[in-house]
Design a protein that fits this description.
single chain; alpha/beta; 7-stranded parallel sheet; 37 helices; 45% helix; 13% strand
Length: 975
């Protein structure tokens, strides 16, 4: 079947011959010119003088002395005019978003050649409607209804603010246009209007052929009319009888505009020729396919292309993206057989690594830099150092990362520490000391210098995508820097960051290739004037087709409609034409849509698809794609203790096979508790050696670090109080409480060691941020609270602080599995007290959390996995330590009673507070009272761990699974 452009090419050759040098063919966009030129050459069959191919936009621009300003420059000038006319000191940051709306309104007003003074008239008072001869009765009624909402009885603050702005818009419009004219600039609508109204223009070509237009704005109609009167304009319209009106039957909105223009601008082709204009109703294979995700649609491409000779059809096959964000996935889903592909939509620059680098660089100089101390935050520094493009900036970036994170934890590195070579000196060089506006320009120049450095250090063999992305980003930043330097763009750094983000999102990287060869991958707008035999349309959901049309504007719908400006109705009709024109000559059409309602999608097919189902005579096939995945109920997968696994266990825990450091326990309460929590979690951690990841480049203090600082600080305080001895009196504690500076010094020293990872004696008080200061004060409060509580208990003796305890244990795992291991751990505090019940040793574990402990009913409850959520693990740890202490001649030479205790600092209130653990309401004053039962159950649990007949089974507790670090590896995510 002949394409529309082939019919046009035949007609041009027949009417104008082979010398087309004085002919200009005008298209809505550039792409159609490539196909038209090929058709003309082929049809002519001989050398010809080619016509000029120009777009409608080029036609207007060529006949104006002004040039179109870029949007950033335009909105900056508009902001200045707004401030001048209203007296409102609105920042550019706040203005920028709705400045874009205002600019779009001005553009639409001029393209439709409306009278600005009439459109922006304040018609609230009814007498202002006296001189409205330019309006029809229907238009007057629309405006009356709109402004009736602004009567005094219906007034509100929002409406008053609207009228306040509305009363200045006409002044802003005039001032803005005057300013641009003086600079030789214009926004597109103003430039088009100037050309349309200029009767003295001398056109370059003898003949202008306007091909494939749909909706015409008034400026375009005015230009068409002028050239038509001069006998220099001729028109070629592309449509189908199916959607054109028949009498009073309007059929479809797709033919709404062309049906009006055929009378004004007659078609050069025969409107009654069925070969050209009666193709939609001919037999077609139309298939609608629903898919559960966007990615599933993209994966369908490979299968679709391999069928029905679609790859072999080459450029007669098109894949059309209603959602151009799917491009990256589509590219990866193309089959190897499709070796010739032309992609008309560009790759989004925002998805390139250079875009992420720009974002990280700005974050480094904003939230990542502290101007008062001239230091950087480690987290922001690490983000940049780990970027893949750092290899083009500095050869020493890995060494710098190690120095900041592994050799020490430098949360606030200085410039001197960061600047290790030329690249890092540029990256972390001084760019502060400027005013807010000047700083934006300096940052823009700094980013440009970094981009230059990357380009100069990149290998010549680097991929083209990298080079193109780098070049386009460099061009954007250069433009911004130029605007800031010329004072056209006066913004702070935050606005600069947002503006760069907008520019990156709106910029694409073009693909290079032979445009008229191979399968065509394109957006909806690129399909205009081009016909295909095989069409695959992706993401044809309502909201994508038609494109999420809205009427966001400062000019209300009623006024827009009354003055014949663009409305939502116009936009729907435009997309209807794009849709039907795309498929009218195709004989093989497949349309996919997302039927899922997740992630903000409606799961609704396009209204145009519904029209085909209901109104057309085509038999539409319906198919459904499945993701290939089905939800499978989790079945716990146990890990049997094979010979290899048992060997690993013994290597890890057998005292005679593990060359462990003397005094370090092999089996800790943490390991036993982990096994009780989930045996498979124990397997991943201790058998496979998979440790939980630590992300500690943030200067925030989590619960673990908070607890460590409190523990270390309390140890230092009591070491200071005892001064090498063990006995503590109330006067000792009172002295410490009265020397608050000493407590603060100790806390600061501990922060340096635990948070900032600096060696002892590395310096004075660290530089805290706000949250760290709050945590510091809380820790000091807790320490003072602990001291006051102990002052009531004094006198007592400190037996040990942060004391390691360990003992051997015989393991009988069953069968031949017999070995010795060591159990134990570190006790926060051992003290000897006499609180009226007799002298005893307390094994104290500090707890800084807020949760209150639920007392266990008996020993057996400690070893019941169901009680883990009630913190039975706390019991196991302190009971194990107490058991070891009670038998040790080093820690308990006088064989005193030993009691386990958990001291919850937040709940340590009142003179009668006792941290001793209880069974029910009965405190455990002596571990020996339950020692035998505890030892028996402990050995049983440990023997289970090493029993080859008992596999590592995942827990059935969903709450444990949800927070398990091995959740994805295990495959159990809970219900």
């Amino acid at each position: 079947m002949k394409t529309f452009l082939e019919h046009v090419a035949h007609d041009i050759i027949n009417k104008y011959g082979y010398d087309l040098s004085r002919v200009a063919v005008v298209f809505p966009n550039k792409r159609a010119a490539l196909f038209m030129n090929e058709y003309l050459v082929r049809i002519a069959g001989r050398p010809i003088w080619s016509p000029a191919y120009i777009t409608i936009s080029d036609l207007f621009r060529r006949h104006s002395s002004r040039r179109t300003g870029d949007q950033i420059k335009l909105i900056c000038d508009l902001h200045k005019c707004f401030t001048e006319c209203t007296g409102i000191d609105e920042t550019l940051d706040h203005f920028y978003g709705w400045g874009q709306l205002l600019l779009a309104d001005f553009d639409d007003l001029d393209k439709n050649m409306a009278e600005a003074d009439k459109v922006f008239a304040n018609l609230r008072d009814i007498h202002e409607l006296d001189d409205v001869s330019y309006l029809s009765k229907e238009q007057i009624d629309i405006i009356r209804r709109f402004f009736s909402n602004f009567s005094e009885e219906h007034n509100s603050e929002l409406k008053r603010r609207f009228l306040s702005l509305w009363s200045h818009i006409y002044d802003i419009y005039n001032t803005f246009n005057e300013r641009l004219t003086s600079e030789g600039l214009a926004y597109e609508g103003a430039l088009y209007r100037e050309v349309a109204e200029n009767v003295n223009i001398e056109f370059m070509y003898d003949t202008y052929l306007f091909v494939g237009f749909n909706v015409l704005q008034k400026v375009e109609r005015r230009l068409f009319e002028r050239l038509q009167k001069q006998g220099r304009a001729h028109f070629y319209w592309d449509f189908d009888h199916y959607y054109m009106p028949h009498g009073h039957d309007l059929r479809h909105e797709a033919g709404h505009y062309i049906s009006q223009y055929l009378q004004l601008f007659p078609n050069e082709l025969d409107n009654t020729d069925g070969n050209i204009y009666n193709n939609f109703s001919r037999r077609k294979d139309i298939t609608f396919v629903s898919a559960p995700t966007e990615n599933v649609q993209a994966r369908y491409i490979s299968r679709w292309l391999k069928e029905n000779g679609r790859i072999e059809a080459g450029r007669r096959t098109a894949i059309v993206l209603c959602n151009e964000g799917l491009l990256q996935t589509v590219i990866h889903c193309l089959p190897d057989e499709a070796d010739k592909v032309n992609i008309t939509t560009g790759y989004p620059l925002a998805q390139s690594p250079v875009a992420s680098l720009i974002s990280q660089l700005i974050a480094l100089q904003t939230g990542g830099y502290m101007a008062t101390s001239e230091k950087y935050r480690l987290q922001a520094v690490n983000t940049v150092l780990k970027h893949p493009y750092m290899k083009f900036i500095s050869e020493k970036h890995t060494e710098l990362y190690r120095a900041l994170n592994i050799d020490a934890k430098v949360y606030y590195p200085t410039r001197e520490r960061l600047c290790t070579d030329e690249g890092t000196s540029l990256l972390f060089g001084c760019i502060d000391g400027y005013s807010s506006a000047a700083l934006s320009g300096r940052i823009a120049e700094w980013i440009i210098d970094i981009l230059k450095l990357i380009a100069s250090n990149a290998d010549d063999s680097a991929d083209q995508m990298f080079k193109e992305a780098l070049f386009r980003t460099y061009t954007l930043m250069n433009r911004l820097a130029g605007l800031i330097l010329s004072d056209d763009l006066v913004i702070d750094v935050i606005t600069l960051q947002r503006l760069i983000g907008q520019l990156l999102k709106s910029t694409s990287i073009p693909f290079h290739g032979e445009p008229v060869v191979g399968v065509q991958i394109m957006g909806v707008l690129e399909t205009r004037n081009i016909d295909f035999d095989h069409v695959l349309i992706l993401s044809a959901n309502e909201g994508n087709m038609p494109k999420g049309v809205n009427d966001t504007s400062f000019i209300p719908y009623g006024i827009r409609k009354a003055h014949e400006l663009t409305t939502v109705d116009n936009k729907v009709a435009i997309y209807a034409y794009y849709f039907y024109r795309l498929i009218q000559r195709a004989n093989d059409v497949t349309i996919l849509y997302n039927n899922s309602t997740d992630n903000g999608t409606t799961g609704e097919m396009s209204r145009f698809m519904l029209q085909i189902l209901v109104e057309s005579n085509h038999n539409v096939g319906r198919r459904s794609l499945q993701s290939g995945q089905s939800s499978i109920k989790f079945a716990p997968v146990e890990v049997c203790k094979t010979d290899d696994i048992m060997n690993r266990l013994l290597l890890r825990f057998d005292k005679n096979r593990n060359g462990h450091k003397e005094g370090t326990p092999l089996l800790t309460p943490t390991a036993i508790n982990r096994y009780m929590r989930c045996p498979k979690q124990f397997y991943y951690n201790y058998v496979c050696g998979l440790r939980e990841p630590e992300t500690d480049d943030s200067d925030e203090i989590d619960n673990r670090i908070f607890g460590n600082i409190f523990h270390e600080a309390s140890q230092k305080i009591y070491e200071r109080i005892t001064a090498g001895g063990t006995h503590i009196t109330a006067d000792n504690i009172k002295w410490m409480l009265s020397h608050g500076a000493e407590i603060e010094r100790i806390v600061d020293e501990t922060f340096m060691e635990e948070l900032f990872k600096l060696p002892k004696g590395a310096g004075t008080r660290p530089e805290y941020n706000g949250l760290q200061l709050i945590n510091r004060e809380v820790i000091i409060t807790y320490l003072r609270k602990l001291l006051r509580m102990d002052m009531q208990l004094a006198p007592f003796d400190i037996v040990g602080l942060e004391t390691d305890v360990i003992e051997d244990m015989e393991v009988c795992g069953g069968g031949s599995v017999r070995f010795r291991t060591t159990v134990g751990g570190r006790i926060d505090r051992l003290d000897c007290v006499n609180d009226g019940t007799g002298e005893r040793i307390r094994v104290i574990d500090y707890k800084t959390g807020s949760r209150r402990l639920e007392y266990m009913p008996d020993i057996a409850a400690i070893f019941d996995s169901a009680n883990i959520s009630k913190h039975s693990d706390y019991y196991l740890q302190t009971f194990l330590y107490s058991s070891i202490v009670s038998k040790s001649v080093l820690t308990n030479p006088r064989n005193l009673p030993v009691s386990p205790a958990l001291l919850f600092i937040q709940h340590a209130t009142g003179s009668d507070y006792d941290p001793t653990l209880c069974f029910g309401k009965n405190p455990v004053r002596d571990i020996n009272d339950c020692h035998q039962e505890f030892e028996t159950l402990l050995h049983e649990k440990v023997n289970d761990i090493f029993n080859p007949a008992i596999p590592f089974v995942p827990t059935s507790d969903d709450d444990i699974c949800r927070i398990c670090p091995y959740m994805q590896l295990c495959g159990n995510s809970g219900k």
